[in-house]
Each structure stands twice: as C-alpha cells, then as structure tokens.
Amino acid sequence: SAVISQKPSRDICQRGTSLTIQCQVDSQVTMMFWYRQQPGQSLTLIATANQGSEATYESGFVIDKFPISRPNLTFSTLTVSNMSPEDSSIYLCSVGRGRNTEAFFGQGTRLTVV
Amino acid sequence: DAKTTQPTSMDCAEGRAANLPCNHSTISGNEYVYWYRQIHSQGPQYIIHGLKNNETNEMASLIITEDRKSSTLILPHATLRDTAVYYCIVREGTGGFKTIFGAGTRLFVKA
Description:
The complex is a heterodimer of chains A (114) and B (111).
Chain A: E1 4-7, E2 10-13, E3 19-25, E4 31-37, E5 43-49, E6 56-57, E7 68-72, E8 75-80, E9 89-96, E10 103-105, E11 109-113
Parallel strand pairs in A: 2-11
Antiparallel strand pairs in A: 1-3, 3-8, 4-5, 4-9, 5-6, 7-8, 9-10, 9-11
Chain B: E1 9-13, E2 18-23, E3 31-38, E4 45-50, E5 55-56, E6 61-64, E7 70-75, E8 84-92, E9 105-110
Parallel strand pairs in B: 1-9
Antiparallel strand pairs in B: 2-7, 3-4, 3-8, 5-6, 6-7, 8-9
C-alpha cells in the first residue's frame, strides 16, 4: 500500500490568486497523477506528473493553468493558477507502482474560490 | 482504454449480498478490470481487480464472464458503511497506468 498526504486539506481562496497543493507519499512510486472532482461529479484526470520532466496533460487541461512539479519519486505539487469560482473542486493526488497494480488516492484538497 | 457502463444507482438491504454489474464490451486482451469505491468526502479506495479469472479478497469477489465483456462485483454481506459510489474501470496492464473514471454506481445500503 501507499500512504498519501495532501496539503492543504481545504482552502478558501480569492479569485485571481493561485494555490499550490502538495502531495507526499510515504514510499517511492513510479507514477503520480492529479485529478479534479467537481461537485457531484466523477473524477477527471488532469495530468500525469513525470519525475524530472514536464507533466503530461489530458485534453482540456494546460500547463499555464495547472503547473505541476515532481522533483523526486515521493513528492509532487499541483498549482491552480488565476483561480475563478469554476475552479472550486476537490483536487486529488494518486500514485501507482506500475503494471497490474492498483492506484492509491489521497484524501483530496477541497478548494473553494470566492 | 475501454469504456464501461454501470447502473446509475442501486439499493441493497443490510446483511444481503450486493451485486454490482459492469459492461465493458470493447475490452481488449491486455486490459484489466478494476473496482474502486468512493465513500462520501473521501478519496477513492481500491477494492479488487482481475484479468479473466474470478478473484476474491477480504472485501469482495469479482466475477468476470468468459468473454470478458462484463463483470460483477459482489459484496457478500453489505453493511451501512458500504454505501458509496462504486467505479468499474478497465485499464491497460502493460504500459498505460492511467485510471480513467466513469460515472460509477451509487450504492445505497439500507437498514
């Protein structure tokens, strides 16, 4: 298993500002991912965080809006930039160790933009 | 990754078995079937996964049809704490590690 710690657990932010969310894993993992879950909806994959290189973004998500860092095999950050109320969501970090293995999820960061 | 189809919601009486179906008719030979659940206000929790054989663990059983076009997750003795959204996901086992979520099934366990 993997224990994932996300910080902050929740925040209320002013529109136009940015928030950086941290994801710390208790052991080295191959893959790290970031998801968004809008109110009442399922999870949507934002990007794959690649260690030592630029993240791989899914359709509809861009680096300028959601810059991601992954400096090592246990840590990643997601920044939500120039926030608007439409960015109010839960943001979740997920990790995986490779093929034929399950993914593990953090408890999420509940973001409200006012 | 292949897409899945699940009922929007289901009810189950406490103590009875909950059988959650999933259709994945376009699944390819190297794709696994995974099940996760999300209890309100928590991150998704892994339940079980399989390729073509039936699987069982301490949480649930996974029954995959012989043609692999559908599967059923069985919670043998549902409790109120099993009330959650259950996601059936097919994922490539040889390289693509992304987990793509559909809408899932909202299971209500009633006393």
